[in-house]
Amino acid sequence: MKVLTANRLADGEAVWYANGGWAETIDNADVAHDKAAEDRLEAIGATASANNEVVDVNLIDVTVANGVVEPVRLREKIRAAGPTNRNDLGKQARPVAARAA
Amino acid sequence: MYRYDEFDHDFVQARVAEFSDQVARRLAGEITEDQFRPLRLMNGVYLQLHAYMLRIAVPYGTLNSKQLRMLGHIARKYDKGYGHFTTRQNIQFNWPALSDIPAILADLASVEMHAIQTSGNCIRNVTADHFAGAAADEVADPRPYAEILRQWSSVHPEFSFLPRKFKIAVTGAERDRAAIQTHDIGLHLKKNAAGELGFAVYVGGGQGRTPMIAKKIRDFLPEADLLSYCTAILRVYNLYGRRDNKYKARIKILVHETGVEEITRQVEAEWQEMKDADLKLPEADIRAIDAYFAPPALVERPEGDEAVKLARLDSKSFSEWLDQNVVTHRHPDYAAVTISLKGIGEAPGDASDSQMEAVADLAEKHAFDELRVSHEQNLILPHVARADLKAVYDALVDIGLATANSNLISDIISCPGLDYCALATARSIPVAQEISLRFASLERQREIGELKLKISGCINACGHHHVGHIGILGVEKKGAELYQVTLGGSADENTSVGEIIGRGFSSAEITDAIEQIVETYLGLRLDRTEKFIDAYRRVGPAPFKEALYAGEAKAA
Q1: Structural domains in chain B, sorted by start
Q2: Which of B418, B432, B468, B523 could potentially form a cystine with B412 if both were Cys, beta carbons 3.0 to 4.6 Å apart?
Q3: Are strands B453-456 and B480-487 parallel, antiparallel or unpaired?
């Protein structure tokens, strides 16, 4: 399973493709379950990159358990949460309500 | 310290305007990322895991209080309230928005700072001994030469697109605190028998995936020939350095593959062609730059001896800090102070906005407005009257920066690692924090004595692990972090590259392994005066291997 991730051009914020736009958290990211869906996400990424919305676009491996999207690699886990030595920074520092919104 | 002249001001302002325009065009979609990336890198802007990162140059690690205050201001206004001081005496901000970077650069320019050439395949910030101008063992201040090199190398048309990045370090003392033998060019400022100043020139040092110790190609280069000789080295490198393979593109590979004799011959031949041409430094020009670095007027403060003696009796913690973080100054009434950015359990090299401002205030009040960033990721007050040490200490206690651990095991060099860096393969800061907490007792650390522990989160070795007495390299293996340990490295006048001791350790095992190594050392040292590195050089890796892995061999 894969999701599409990038950094927003203007501020570098790590973002994931979700519900037709770029979300600041991975929670509701569109999950590709097959090659066709991956190709579709890849095309969306290429367009967003060409439109200068985002940079450094990548498809990354995830698992989904009980509806929770979790990156496979530590690197992507850290991108999705924030520095592991500073819980007060990054996505993990945001109130859960704001993250769900 | 050096003050910008009209040319410098215009140059930096012009660059701010140019890059601001480039950022605006990028944000408007007029240029692509492929077009923009080399432009942003030339201005110190990287893209990392969570955001952009801005690396700001601190030339040869020298700052004044106004500049440090501005860094604190930038941390607060544009970033997340802190900055990270690096092993190249620079500072990095981890969270700036691209759209804010023109404003940050304008703020920096207002205090004579910039981010030019902090990235890219050019000559990077020239680093120097952090005690320059203060050290008792110094022949002369190396910074005027670093400044001359900075002026010469800034947007140098011939050397802006080298095969790879290029780093120069300068020391003015026999005791090398600038790690010159791990640099592309290392310069050791010294005097010849006639009392004239010149340099021993080392070439081809470096760390990364292929660590190499620089080779001395000239024992004495007259100071007037500094630029012509460096030009000769860079020309040979630019011509013959490999451009086909990024991993073999540094000058260390060229020196290694060509051989020191042949590379010396090539450099000397190139130099002979132009040594007496326009790059010869006029004596008056050298002395003019020298004048910028004239030491502050250090008035006699003989009351310091008595003041320090009384304060020692009064406070054990002050006394310990004095023993560990304060070093001899060339003036007997003064001292140089290391402000540890390695609080127990803290991220090495990080300082908050308010800490930066408070340290700036201290420098202004007690240290002639001068500060340094050390390559060991600490801050330095180079000139403090001994009579004022207690006041400085008390102020540092108030801001949580009085940890008395300079050169001890918790004075760890660490790169940002996988918590921030896009190149990293494993985390380094949390490993540093856990080791620091394990050895939290300063009494235990002092018992262990001088021990330089350095951690990198990938093979690029920004955390200098190759030259740590104990080095830790984090890699990714089968999806998990694995930490490889090297022993016996050192980055001083007796530079050595550490040897891999054996199989790596998981993140859960690494701190125990380090403790095991330290206990092994304590058990075999001749006495308290035999430092870790000396003991390792005497006994070699065997006892450490035995302590770490013997159980496994038996189990197998």
Answers
A1: 6-110 (3.90.480.20), 142-292 (3.30.413.10), 304-398 (3.90.480.20), 413-555 (3.30.413.10)
A2: B432
A3: unpaired
DSSP type of residue B340: -
Number of domains comprising chain A: 1
- On whether the CB atoms of residues B182 and B207 are closer than 8 A, the answer is yes
Sign of CA dihedral A57, A62, A66, A68: negative
Residues of A near B (Cβ–Cβ under 8 Å) read 7, 9-14, 49, 51-52, 55-56, 72-75, 78-79, 82-86, 89-90
The answer to whether B26 faces chain A, any CB pair under 8 Å, is yes
Range of the domain at A73: 2-100
Please name the amino acid found at residue B300: E
Q: Which of B97, B430, B481 sits opposite A12 (nearest CB)?
A: B97
- In angstroms, the CA B183 to CA B197 distance is 21
How close does chain B come to A18, measured CA to CA in Å? 18
C-alpha–C-alpha distance, residues B488 and B451, integer Å: 11
For B418, the closest of A9, A13, A75 (CB atoms) is A75
End-to-end Cα distance, chain B: 62
Average pLDDT by stretches of 10, chain B with 556 residues: 92 97 98 96 96 98 98 98 98 98 98 96 97 97 98 95 97 98 98 97 97 98 98 98 96 98 98 95 96 96 97 97 97 98 98 98 98 98 98 98 98 98 97 98 98 98 98 96 98 97 98 98 98 98 97 64
Q: Is B193 helix (H, G, I), strand (E, B) or coil?
A: coil
Q: How far is the alpha carbon of A53 from chain B, nearest alpha carbon, in Å?
A: 9
Looking at this predicted complex, what is its ipTM? 0.95
Is the entire prediction scored with pTM above 0.95?
yes
Burial group, residue B6, by CB count within 10 angstroms (0-12, 13-18, 19+): exposed
DSSP H/E element including A53: none
- What's the rounded Cα separation, in Å, for the pair B38 and B161? 11
Quick check: B347 contacting A, CB < 8 Å?
A: yes
Output the six-digit token pair for B81.
């309230």
B268: exposed, middle or buried (C-beta count within 10 Å: 0-12, 13-18, 19+)? middle
What number of CA atoms fall less than 13 Å from residue B296's CA on the CB side?
21
Residues of chain B found within 8 Å of residue A84, distances taken between Cβ atoms: 419, 427, 430
Give the Cα separation of B308 and B305 in Å (integer). Answer: 5
Any A CB within 8 A of B99 CB: yes
Say whether residue B433 is in contact with chain A using an 8 A CB cutoff.
Answer: yes
**Which chain B residue has its CA at the smallest distance from A54's CA?**
B33
